[in-house]
TrEMBL record:
The keyword Cytoplasm does not apply. This is Anti-sigma factor antagonist. Residues 3-110 form the STAS domain. It comes from Lentibacillus halophilus. Pfam families: STAS. Positive regulator of sigma-B activity. Non-phosphorylated RsbV binds to RsbW, preventing its association with sigma-B. When phosphorylated, releases RsbW, which is then free to complex with and inactivate sigma-B. Belongs to the anti-sigma-factor antagonist family.
Length: 110
């Protein structure tokens, strides 16, 4: 399956809507779209993962790269609407303690 990436920009914020699967095949496409958004100082990046049903460790690596870039550039990244399967990946790896995650499915803010 492919990955669809849609980005909208408003003021000092970008919202990224992802749809499909994030794996070794689609991760380079995600990295190319996501990481540059984190390089503007004070920029907020919101990633909506509602339509992502599968993600592997390659995808986690891309999000870690984006978070590292955000911290280096005084910007931020927030994940929202993670499906249970994807959220579990963040929880199992302990990354739910490092990322800001908002999700209606999870029912809370992190």
């Amino acid at each position: 399956m492919d990955l669809t990436i849609d980005v909208t920009d408003a003021d000092n914020q970008s919202t990224v809507w992802l749809s499909g699967e994030i794996d070794a095949y689609t991760a380079p496409q995600l990295k190319e779209a996501l990481v540059p958004l984190t390089t503007s100082e004070g920029h907020q990046v919101i990633v909506d993962l509602e339509d992502v049903g599968y993600m592997d460790s390659t995808g986690l690596g891309i999000f870690i790269s984006a978070l590292k870039s955000a911290k280096e550039h005084n910007s931020s990244i927030r994940l929202k609407n993670l499906q249970d399967r994807v959220l579990r990946l963040f929880q199992i790896t302990g990354l739910d303690d490092i990322f800001t995650i908002d999700t209606a499915i999870w029912g809370g803010n992190k």
